[in-house]
Fold:
Amino acid sequence: MRPPLISVIMPTFNRLPWLRAAIQSVREQTLEDWELIVADDGSDEPTRKYLRELAASAEYRDRARVLFLEHTGNPSAALNAALREARADHVAFIDSDDLWLPGKLATQLASLQARPALEWSYTRAVLVDGAGRPIVGGRALCSPTGHGAEILQALLRGDSGITQSSVVARREAVARVGGYPEDLPICGNYALYVRLASRSEVDYIDAPLTLIRRHGEHHCNEISGLAELRRFLLAVQCSGVAPQMAATLRARHAEISAGLAKAQAARGLRLRALGTLAASSPRSWRYRPWWSGALGAAAHLLAPAWLKARVRRA
Structure:
């Protein structure tokens, strides 16, 4: 069987209220030669029932496959499982609570095909609420991360305007950088973009073709996320992949370390906060953000319980 033009990768876990709309936005693409691979990370039975019925339906039988995985809570592992099943030369990613406008895939694929030296692409995104309405005052999710050759520097500076649901990439390029790093379940997408950017300029589509949904079921462990990000950026710095960014990476390491210590202190993790400050001080004491974060952590650690309770109430 001839492979499709593009493989759509969708990880999901218990997102049934929005999953149907996300899949419908794939179905409504003007580019019709796609396959959909849903990687289900051990969802509950209602979600799995819907996915079984979807894969068996006449409309999707030859176009959609569902991977029913054991639950790990690791999006990177689910994404890699779907990537191993992809057949097309290009892959697109969409989270199961986000949406695409109808021309998204056609626009990105045509642009990449016209610029064969580029291996990946992303679009501008719009922030919407649970019902899909643009959030007032936040219609533009964020400024674009960067164009062309400046993308690596922009990512390492922390200008993280790339959203997973906006990305299309050559499957071979994703495989060549190792896919999603499974030891970074929270920051895996950011790590993938840095690795892609170290090999190729990016094709940026300046049109809001991706809708990023914000709702009450988003959960993120701030401490784990900061710890992952700090570990990854330290590895980038040690690899020497961007020697011109050494000073920026040191400053970001200091800022993230201070934020991590402050978050740990706010959770009452006294020894972990002190350990983070002690371990990061040799690299970070020269940077003002590290000191402000250290003082914030110290305030959390030293302030009496009654004062912290009063501040929280205020």
About this structure: Residues 246-266 form the longest helix (21 residues). The chain has two domains: 6-213, 222-313. The longest strand covers residues 202-213.
